[in-house]
Amino acid sequence: MKATILLLVTLALSVPAHAQDTEDLTPSGDPAPIRAVKLIQAGGGATQLERVFFGQVAARETVDLSFEVGGRLIMFDAQEGQFLEEGIQIAAMDLAPFERAVERATLQLAQANRDLTRAQTLVQSNAASATQAENAETARDLAAVALREATDALEDATLRAPFRALVASRLTPNFANVSPGQPIVRLHDMSEVRVEIDVPERLFQSLSDVTGISFVGTSPLFEGEVPLTLREFNAETQSIGQSYRVTLALPSTQVPTAIIPGASMTVTARLRNSDATAITLPPSAVTMTGDSAQVMVYTPNADAENGTVGLVPVDVASANGAQITVTGLGSDQWIVGAGIQMLRDGETVRPFTGMSVE
């Protein structure tokens, strides 16, 4: 009787052990080889996310210059595509009518001064009233204003570049009669060369602090990367694509003479994570269990040839939808990079070191 009970207990204990062994056997009954897994080291320090954008070179401003006075255009020395330094004369009207207006205003002011002197003398001799002297003084002041206006009109009859400019297009032919405010020439302000990129709405709104972003540009016009400085962004989305227009500036010391608005440039934005414990992992390295995220951490055995894997909960975030930022891991830990859905918690594995041919 005792021998029968002992036999039953022995069989009961051997069943689960045998079932566990079959998990590591192939269908033919041979021992299954140890799985090879790709490992990623958690590393240390802050992570850096990158996004690449298509950029387009743009001028600081584009303006249409015009005269403040009307007249006949007799000089228009600005060729399309030409660079102009600040203060260079671009166009001029026939100055003769404006010079005559200045002479006329000068004579009228001199006459007004004589009339004022005569009126003041008559007032002192009681031959005229004080009102007449005041009227003469007002006439003198009006003549002085007319002279200033005539002088300003003479200066406005010449058009000069208000900044270092690139002539975009000529809008009026030479020797034409122009009116005040009529566009004469379109200029690009090249005192600062800028680059414009369109940032998607989802990515733009996920960036709470733009001070942690650095921008660099690459182009056949430059040797290597060129640092870019954030200048401004439109506070409204584009009509197509739901994107925000971001404007960057090129360093003034690195602007080539051949660069013109409209040229293309590749812009790379790098966002440095402020959390020094965060690392970037591919989505294949993270698994979701309910509402929590987990990764498989590899722990090497004493022989360092094999090891075991175990699930560890982590906190995850994603700034661009393609890479996952993970916190909650040590800097010396190794993570399974892919295929974690095929592994069991506590399973023995070996690091994947590449394909070998025997």
UniProtKB/TrEMBL annotation:
Alphabetically ordered keywords of this record: Signal
Entry-linked InterPro entries: RND_pump_MFP
Domain of life: Bacteria
GO terms for MF: efflux transmembrane transporter activity
Entry GO terms, CC: efflux pump complex
SUPFAM superfamilies (UniProt xref): HlyD-like secretion proteins (SSF111369)
Signal sequence bounds: 1-19
PANTHER family: EFFLUX RND TRANSPORTER PERIPLASMIC ADAPTOR SUBUNIT (PTHR30469:SF20), MULTIDRUG RESISTANCE PROTEIN MDTA (PTHR30469)
Family: Belongs to the membrane fusion protein (MFP) (TC 8.A.1) family.
Protein name: RND family efflux transporter MFP subunit
